[in-house]
Automatic annotation (TrEMBL):
It comes from Cyprinus carpio carpio. Keywords: Acetylation, Chromosome, Coiled coil, Isopeptide bond, Metal-binding, Nucleus, Phosphoprotein, Transferase, Ubl conjugation, Ubl conjugation pathway, Zinc, Zinc-finger. GO terms for cellular component: chromosome; cytoplasm; nucleus; ubiquitin ligase complex. CDD domains: RING-H2_UBR2 (cd16686), UBR-box_UBR2 (cd19679). It is an enzyme of class 2 (transferase). This is E3 ubiquitin-protein ligase.
Amino acid sequence: MAAVETDRDAPSALCSEFLNFSAKDTAAKWLQVSNLPKEVYQHLACYVPKIYCLGPNLNPQNEDLLAPLLLQSPLEWYLCGEEPSVGLAKLEQNNQPSQLCGHVFKVGEPTYSCRECAADPTCVLCMQCFLGSVHKEHRYRMTTSGGGGFCDCGDTEAWKKGPYCQKHEPNISDSSQKDPLANLSDEMIARTYNVFSIILKYAVDMLTWEKEDELPEGLEPPARGDTYYCMLFNDEVHTYEQVIYTLQKAVNCTQKEAVSFATTVDRDGRKSVRFGDFQFCEQAKSVIVRNTSRQTKPLRVQVMHSSVVAHQCFALKALTWLGQIIRYSDALRRILCQVGLQRGPEGENSSLVDTLMLCDSKMWKGARNVYHQLFMSSLLMDTKYKKLFAIQFAKNYERLQSDYVKDDHDREFSVTDLSVQMFTVPSLARMLITEENLMTTIIRTFMDHLRHRDLHGHFQFERYTAQQAFKFRRVQSLIGDLKYVLISRPTEWTDQLREKYLEGFSAFLELLKCMQGMDPVVRQVGQHIEMEPEWEAAFTLQMKLTHIISMMQEWCSSDERVLIEAYKKCLSALTHCHSGFTDGEQPITLSMCGHSVDTIRYCVSQEKVSIHLPLSRLLAGLHALLSKTEVAYRFPELLPLSELSPPMLIEHPLRCLVLCAQVHAGMWRRNGFSLVNQIYYYHNVKCRVEMFDKDLSMLQAGASMMDPNHFLMIMLSRFELYHIFSSADCRKRYNRENANKDVVQQNNTLIEEMLHLVIMIVGERYTAGVGQVECFDEIRREIVHQLCIRPMAHSELVKALPENENKETGMERVIDSVALFKKPGVTGKGLYKLRPESAKMFNLYFHHYSRADQSKAEEAQRKIKRQNGEDSVLPPPVLPRFCPLFASLVNILQCDVLLGILGAVLQWAMEPSGGHWSESMLQRVLHLIGMGLVEEQQHLLSSAEDNDTNFNFTLKISRPGEAPANTPSILALLETLQNAPHLEVHKDMIRWILKTVANIKTTRECTASAPPSDSSGHSQEETVRDKDKAERKRKAEMARLRREKIMAQMSEMQRHFINENKELFQQSLEELDPSTSSTLEHRYTGIPPEKIKQIKHEFPLISLFLLHSPSSCDSTLFCVGPRRWRAGGSDRRQVVTCILCQEEQEIRIDGKAMVLAAFVQRSTVMSKNRKRPPHNPDKYDPLFMHPDLSFGTHTGSCGHIMHSHCWQRYFEAVQAKEQRRQQRLRVHTSYDVENGEFLCPLCECLSNTVIPLLPLTKTSCSSEQPDLSQWLNITSLQMKALLSAHRKAKAADADGVDDMDGVNDCPPPDGFKLDYTPKNPYSSTIKEMLTTFGTATYKVGLKVHPNEQDPRVPIMCWGSCAYTIQSIERLLVDEEKPLFGSLPCRQDDCLSSLTRFGSACWTVSSHATVQNHFIRLLAALVPDPRVENTPCILDIDMFHLLVSLVLSHPAVFSLDSSGLSADTAQLYFLHLVTVAHIVQILLSSVPEEVQMEQESGGAEREEEEKVCMFYNTLRTHLGSGLREVDSGWHLWCCVKAGILPYLRAAALFFHYLNGAPAPPELHTLGVGEWEALCGYLCLPSNLLQLFYNNRELMEPVLHGWCSHPGVLQGLQSSVALIRFPRESNHLIELPGDYSALINQASSFTCPKSGGDKSRAPTLCLVCGAMLCSQSYCCQSELEGVDVGACTAHTFACGAGVGIFLRVRESQVLFLAGKTKGCFYAPPYLDDYGETDQGLRRGNPLHLCQERYRKIQKLWRQHSITEEIGHAQEANQTLVGIDWQHL
Ligand SMILES: [Zn+2]
Ligand SMILES: [Zn+2]
Ligand SMILES: [Zn+2]
Ligand SMILES: [Zn+2]
Ligand SMILES: [Zn+2]
Ligand SMILES: [Zn+2]
Ligand SMILES: [Zn+2]
């Protein structure tokens, strides 16, 4: 890039020229000239190349500065005729803005639509308008915009109601009719006109300019240099990677630069990748082309002269400028529209707007965006010109679409995408249909692009080339346009509209003709098909057209004349199609039961058959409409009824249904999955409305016009069952027919399907027009049948119902009448449950049930009936009446052929030998008989009104067969079957039938209309027997379920163990059985015995606590100090059971080690400073925890105990398995074995180490103990001796110089043996486990490699103990639970083993190291000049200090044999640390302003005085550093509140360490806590006494603390001190309404790529940071791996654990480390109690506090990682996600 240097200075060289420029003068000159365009062009030709494109790196500052000054300003001067700022302000003032909001949406911005009032789903409001509109009270939908499109507020056609928000409400004086130009002077109009036409023409010329080296006439630059750009254009063919790779090669840039080029090309559509002389650029071009031309077409590259690029740059600027200028006034906007649409010199379609549109696909993305924006803010905002633009758009439609189909850019970058803005406006759509014949144009254009047809003229998608497939995808957008045009139905029809609509309808029929019969299939026999045939394209087309077809019918239904014409057209199209079919149609005659009919010979199983019959189905739809609107009865003469040939109508739909039946019967197995998929979609809710449902309607229509016997015979013949039922002795023949077993099976299924079809033809009457129903009845029935399966959530119901073109199901209007809503709990969804009274609509053979649905529903309904103590029979429901046109269908039930079929099946069922008939078959037959009876009852009921009682089903079924067969009647057969033992399951139905028959007979005999039969009430005895049987069955089922559950809980590993210990496990499983449990513990604890057994089994430690809860409250309990409570010998005995080997084991110092599965993790949950950078793990000294608790180590456990050796064996097995698995398949697991992770073998809880269980230490305290000052003295001597000994040892180690001054002067006090090495009391396995856990804590807590020698190992263990106790103390406060007695067992176990481990871990470390830690710790408390680097007390967390002191002390204490007690030391540590904490609190917590002193009762008087005195003592030490406070009351309040968490934590600590039961006051919430705590901790309730009782001793200590330089620094520092008590951390506050979050996220831009919208804005719920997730731009490197913004953020904010809300997805994201994560249900619910992950449904979402609190609790409990583990175990796909990239 050598050319850069010389050109850099160019602008400054011109500076003087620029400075002398006057916009005003230029404008004035322009006013004089005669040829203005020429003058302006000259100006542009002169200046544009001087401003733009002067180097490779465009210099935006100069351009942005100079362009307005030199180019825009003179134009504005000219336009206004005065100072532009003044002129434009005037314009704005006079403007009467239109009522349209027109706000253009950004990507990700929330948009709102009203489900009740929007004309169609594309009508949306911006958030501002929505909040000011009536719709916020309606059922609205919320979505996020994909960018583009604008707010429809103010558009009266877009909204059925409330078109204006408050802001856009029109004034009373209606100004919309007035021409905005009226406000402008004629001169102004003329000038504006001049400027706009010159500039717009200039911009259009430049943007559509195709020459690379020349400029349009009049723009040639004065001077021409050899400066060129190598311009790279975007395409959607090449990948990012390809482009980046090519660029690196072609222009020698770094990968980073290449990425940046590629990003810009993708965003703007083009980017110059090289600047220089022609040769230089040409060279790069050839490399790029060469490199990308191999497989696909090459990348588009142009070498362009710099002046051309310069003018193009300015042209874009000019368009933007136009967009801005017209905002000042609607008049200017109208002038611009006029200029744009003015016909050009080339005549029609040659306006500037036309030119732009027609060149759309040739322009680069950036240019398209700019001019589309201008169109939206001008043409589409002006009511008059929107119409004219729409007309031009329609005129150019075909061309534009063809360009679009050939172009490869996404539709959002195409001008065709503007169609939605015009076509959805009902008045425009109607106008375009009538005047521009738009409907026909769209359909014809669509057809034109699908020219690939087979011999019959059908679409052929088979063997599409990639090119054709691509085109097919793009051309589908035309269907979208057609949908827009049709979406609002006309309320009034004109003749012209009728004509054009019918013309469009004819075009549509042509389209359907190409689909009728496409993709035919032929049954494959012998071999399986070799290649799955293509089927998806055809179904895609069908699915896309489904709504169109429905809308076509709705248009037809709104005008009778149109309906009749459309019906005729459709019929003739269908007839035309059928005349082409010639498949094996030779006539044959069928005869049966005395009837005969002629038909053709055709076998679905042998000949071609197609699922695609859109013409037949459209006709079926129109036929039902004719019936519904009653046109058929009023104008029969207008209808071509005579032309109808019912057999022709039913033929193809029947074939299709037979195909489905045969597929079910397994006859088409060799045809592969493609056919199975087609059948699936045929019935699927997305397609069935215009496929399956209409085929059924067509059969109903055809059958209603035929003799039912003829119809049924044809049906039998198509089902290929005719031969079975046709012979005279069919009843026997079938029985003997003993062919292939498969064939019998097949025939059985076919008979079942055939019977089902008959049931549906007679029984499905819920289509308006077929039955006498409204459309809501249909939806209601649909919902009832869904809810008969089980209660469902709103979204499940929506999914099960067909949606109309507005994405509405109509469910809301009827749901409440049939269902009850049940709100959700903290998990789960809100559910709708069927109202009991609605169950009577239940039809077992509901046509939309799959076989699985059917059996589920049957089971559920029978169960409900049994529960209500009713007969469980499910008879057919009472049905609505048919419309007259379909009324004859009921005769199918009583026709001879059907009765023959029914009789045959019943006859077969007489014999139990299976194979020749099936239960389902019989059930269907019984159902059909039931339908006949119900129908007859209905007829009898209504016979009073109309004398139509020739329906006599009972008579027909009572009639025996005629001679010579003399078969028994159906009724007789049923009576016989009633007692057949093999028909137990059908008995209740048979009984119901017989009873109903009897009832009908009585009714007929009585003639009077009796009430309908009562179906309940059979013998009492039988009910009891049934119930017994059911109960036994239920019990057996429950037992089975329980067994299964237990088995499921065991992991594979466990099974391994079970195999080894079979008997033991058998035993323990039996023990789980409640019946064998003992009741002893029950009496003591009140816990049910079975629970105790279980607890004992799962949590062995707990059993101890259960039995040792404090029994007496009379004696005072101390948990610390010489007088503390001590466990007796038997209390200390602790026996636990290993979950792996089931052996019992006593916990003993010298016994086998028992361990608890545990999980150690870093934590920032309690952090008060999230800004603190993570420590350097290698150098960090963790001895003193800072009070901001910024990083801690938390230990948790599931509470399950194992032998250490059992655990080791288990872990080794896991490791081995993992290694094998990783070698075999590169899969991940939810746990990281290499990091020591495993799942608890019992509960699968994620663990990464184990804690050894230790017994309580034996202590006694006999001799008199020293007081504080004596003890301090002794300790001080001990420290001195130790220190000098250590220094000596160190010096000796160093072999070094003897500079030990005074080292030998410190003899140890009596009984303190420096050289004594205490014996380690623990068994070898316990020692091993002590090391294991210590090392794990160290490794995880510091993020370092394990090193058991590291001196920091014990420190980390103490720290984890302290941190875990603190976090649990906080948790108890937050959950408002008492300190003791409310912890779950697992936490109790965990804390007790953790503290006891803490006191033992020194035994496996270097004693000197631990002693040294102790010396340093103590020095922080009792200042010691010999110890360096002691922090000041403001920088120490006192509870951590206390725990570390107590736990490190044994290392020193073990050297002592003087009879001192460890308990004494513990007590004095507690005293000293408490005083230090009081000081810390007083120093940090004194508020700015002291409130009025409050008088309190005498009881606290003393405390207040003392604390006041104490504070003043502090002031004497610190002087002005401390504010003067004389409110003792206030100070005492501070102390009391500030120290409480510390005291509570200390109580927990000593409780677990020493085993002392807690006093009952601490087992409850409420008053008395303070006294109880102080008592339990052996502290005076006036804590200041700790100071004043030992004043002489404490004064110097206090002085020592205060004189630490850090204290004064801390007090004076600007950084706020940590205040006590530390508040619990909360997750951030979330807004109540989810759209507020969407709005917030939509204005969030990626912090790294300068102002770009972030694609996946993600909110950290811990700190509130918004992140740009899942995107390359914000990746960063973490420990050598590229990670996304979220993962990177968790490392600082959450020590590796993160909780996020993905705003666009409405999804909570949990992350842990770099490899673990899961999604979690968001805390936002819609009104139906459901979350909307992915924001697909768009229902308004509101914050559910309980759910958010639950997430917060998971976080506070440190359970996020565990939750992820469980989620990943449950759903293996989560394991494969690259979480680190989020
Ligand atoms: Zn708006
Ligand atoms: Zn508005
Ligand atoms: Zn509304
Ligand atoms: Zn074991
Ligand atoms: Zn467990
Ligand atoms: Zn980013
Ligand atoms: Zn954060």
